UniProtKB/TrEMBL annotation:
It is a multi-pass membrane protein. It is found in: Membrane. PROSITE patterns: ABC_TM1F, ABC_TRANSPORTER_1, ABC_TRANSPORTER_2. This is ABC transmembrane type-1 domain-containing protein. One of its GO terms (molecular function) is ATP hydrolysis activity. Residues 150-395 form the ABC transmembrane type-1 domain. SMART domains: AAA. It comes from Diploscapter pachys. One of its GO terms (cellular component) is membrane. InterPro entries: AAA+_ATPase, ABC1_TM_dom, ABC1_TM_sf, ABC_transporter-like_ATP-bd, ABC_transporter-like_CS, P-loop_NTPase, Type_1_exporter. SUPFAM superfamilies: ABC transporter transmembrane region, P-loop containing nucleoside triphosphate hydrolases. The chain crosses the membrane at residues 150-172, 228-250, 334-355, 367-387. CDD domains: ABC_6TM_Pgp_ABCB1_D2_like.
């Protein structure tokens, strides 16, 4: 504070001095002070006498001391000597007490209040006590000690925050990773449980199902990973902030809360829109990936039919739908998030003005307004986070919905079931009055009143026009499908009563287009065997039986040769012969050959038929 040096100096040299005072602090040491009001002398006396009198002069000192608070704060840097600070407190104890109450606020406007207001305020201040907000008036050692205490408290809060974040991130990330892992394993197990009819359904295309396993489970992660944790922590902050704000300033809390229905409505609309978009998007992207996979899988056919341009156009058309939708979605999402995110600043601004009004009005303490404003800032932060997290949450919810739909799908029978009969007699197969329609084509009866016996130890051949139901008969024996009526029996036991794994271990199927895996010849032959510790001699034996040993011996790596994806490095006949070796090594009771030698030359076919 710049002290009134002029008057003091003049008084010291004994001069008669008359001064018209604008700032009351400049006349503090005057011998006599005359207060004039409306042209009349109102009161006279020394500073102390007039202060004790609690009259007009006292009121003027009080009023001016409040306006001086701000100026004093501005001039704080001039308080270089502790002595001058001391002097100020001594000279103006009343002002100092007022300052203790208000030093942390900007209440310059208070000097415009009428006297009644001032009196009321003073009474309230006295009641409330100086302890509430005297932080700014502490000095020297006190400041240092308390400052150090607070520094330590903040340090420990920092440590606690570090530990909490560590535990929280680890907990959420490990939990979400475990859940994603479980979802992926459960989904795949569920797929393996499903009957073949499930995969005939176009809704269960391989692209769609693999998306469920990969992309959907990855999207589902965001519904449970650390963003959800942050959502809860900011949510807790939100609740605490709302409670505290309601306690300290319910008027401001109501003003803030009144904006929420609007924001929630906007968010709800955004959620509905996003869910629709994700639904459309996933269908289009699945169709696009189907086109891509089909083309890549059958690249030779695509080339021979010069279909490159056609498949390119189909692919581009499909992803363009998603592309355009994405751009539209980006605009809508950006608009809503920008609007809702910034909206709280407008609410904050209103609260700031309203808070100032409530202080001036004497309805709220400035410190309470600050508390409520801090709470509103916390509410803003929490809401801002929630709004930003919302699209991820919708995406995760959509993905989780699809995953649970798959997991809750109950198969008519469980392919992985461990229960069921294990009959001893498994060398004879019979069909009794079987009627069969494919589940996806219920209007076409493939087998009608079909009864047949495949005697034990005999070779039985099915012949007939293409599409007459030969392969379907084999599918019924393998229990890929169940007949609509009639019975399929293995050694006299109805196939549905037999444990699926046991049933299939007694059968070996070689189909017209055998599926080989991207592995070595040896691995392909023993693939899926529980006991894969098969001797080299046994493998050589089945290779010889399938008449492929000579070919394999010419390969530099022999049976350790990798045959490429789906056996692309082999001819059709070679693939069929490896598939026959694979069937033979299982030593089945019943060997099912469905046009298994169709791709072989007659010489090879003749050798194999000797089996
Ligand atoms: N998964 C399926 N879904 C619907 N219909 C099928 C399916 N598989 C075959 N079909 C139909 O069943 C009939 C018999 O087929 P199939 O048993 O494979 O004939 P083939 O005697 O040539 O082996 C055919 O008309 C065929 O179109
Ligand atoms: Mg067939």
């Amino acid at each position: 504070m710049s002290f009134p040096k002029g008057i003091k100096t003049l008084a010291c040299v004994g001069k008669t001095t008359i001064t018209i005072a604008h700032r009351l602090s400049t006349i503090r040491n005057s011998d006599r002070i005359i207060v004039i009001n409306k042209g009349q002398i109102f009161e006279t006396g020394s500073h102390q006498e007039l202060i004790d009198k609690r009259g007009e002069y006292y009121q003027m000192v009080m009023a001016q001391s409040l306006t001086d608070v701000e100026e004093e704060d501005e001039n704080l840097h001039e308080w270089k000597q502790p002595a001058s600070r001391q002097t100020s407190h001594e000279l103006y104890p009343e002002r100092h007490s007022i300052r203790q109450q208000f030093s942390h606020t900007s209440v310059a406007s208070l000097n415009e209040q009428d006297e009644d207001d001032l009196e009321r305020l003073k009474r309230e201040l006295a009641e409330e006590g100086a302890s509430k907000s005297n932080a700014y008036s502490k000095t020297g050692e006190e400041v240092l000690t308390e400052g150090q205490q607070w520094a330590w408290i903040i340090f420990y809060i920092g440590l606690a925050e570090c530990v909490c974040i560590l535990i929280f991130r680890l907990a959420f990330e490990i939990a979400s990773e475990n859940m994603v892992f479980k979802i992926q394993v459960d989904c795949f197990r569920q797929l393996l449980r499903m009957p073949c009819a499930f995969f005939d359904d176009p809704k269960h295309s391989s692209e769609r199902l693999s998306t469920r396993l990969a992309a959907d489970s990855a999207n589902a992660r965001w519904g449970m990973d650390y963003p959800l944790g942050y959502f809860f922590s900011t949510g807790t902050g939100f609740v605490i902030a709302v409670v505290v704000a309601s306690i300290y300033g319910w008027r401001m809390a109501i003003l803030t809360a009144s904006s929420f229905p609007f924001i929630l409505y906007l968010d709800h609309r955004l959620g509905v829109y996003l869910e629709r978009v994700y639904n459309k998007d996933s269908k289009v992207l699945e169709a696009a990936s189907r086109v891509a996979m089909e083309s890549i899988d059958n690249i030779k056919t695509v080339r021979s039919l010069t279909m490159e341009k056609v498949v390119m156009k189909r692919f581009t058309d499909l992803i363009s739908v998603s592309h355009n939708e994405y751009k539209r979605r980006a605009k809508i999402q950006a608009f809503v998030i920008a609007f809702t995110g910034s909206f709280f600043y407008f609410v904050y601004c209103l609260n700031y003005a309203y808070g100032a009004y409530l202080v001036v009005n004497g309805t709220m303490w400035p410190i309470h307004v600050y508390i409520v404003l801090f709470c509103i800032a916390e509410v803003m932060h929490a809401s801002d986070y929630a709004i930003g997290y919302f699209p991820d949450y919708i995406k995760a919810r959509y993905a989780i919905g699809l995953i649970f739909k798959l997991l809750n799908d109950k198969p008519p029978f469980n392919n992985l079931s461990q229960t069921g009969a294990k009959p001893r007699e498994t060398t004879e197969v019979s069909l009794k009055e079987v009627e069969f329609r494919y589940p996806q084509r219920q209007n076409q009866t493939v087998l009608r009143d079909f009864s047949l016996l495949f005697p034990s130890g005999k070779t039985t051949a099915l012949v007939g026009a293409s599409g007459c139901g030969k392969s379907s008969t084999i599918s019924l024996i393998e229990r890929f499908y169940d007949p609509n009526s009639g019975l399929v029996l293995l050694g006299g036991t109805p196939v549905p009563n037999i444990q699926p794994k046991y049933l299939r271990s007694k059968l070996s199927l070689v189909s017209q287009e055998p599926v080989l895996f991207d592995r070595t010849i040896r691995e392909n032959i023993i693939y899926g065997l529980e006991n894969d510790n098969i001797s080299h001699e046994r493998i050589q034996q089945v290779l010889e039986q399938a008449n492929i040993k000579n070919f394999i011996d010419t390969l530099p790596e022999g049976i350790e040769t990798n045959i490429g994806e789906r056996g692309t490095q082999l001819s059709g006949g070679q693939k069929q012969r490896i598939a026959i070796s694979r069937a033979l090594i299982r030593n089945p009771d019943i060997l099912l050959l469905d046009e298994a030698t169709s791709a072989m030359d007659s010489q090879n076919e003749a050798v194999i038929n000797i089996l």
